[in-house]
Write a structure and sequence with these properties.
mainly beta; 4-stranded antiparallel β-sheet
């Protein structure tokens, strides 16, 4: 499972939601499917969510990766 820490409590999330990349930060393009939200709970500071996500792929079974470099104008 994947874990994400620090999602604002104002975000409306439910179990079963598809989790995708936002594109913010420029590391990954927007819209890549990461997986499905399976659990969420307040973080230790109680003003952010921590969420668990079932990955969209089995990383142990990946044999080849095709990398596409995107350029914005």
């Amino acid at each position: 499972r994947l874990q994400f820490h620090g999602l604002p409590l104002s975000v409306n999330i439910t179990i079963g939601d598809t989790v995708i990349t936002s594109g913010l930060g420029g590391t990954f393009p927007a819209g890549l499917i990461l997986g499905i939200a399976t659990e969420f709970y307040p973080s230790s500071n109680e003003w952010l969510w921590d969420i668990e996500v079932k990955a969209a792929v089995n990383f142990l079974s990946i044999e080849e990766v095709f990398i596409v470099q995107m350029h914005s104008k």
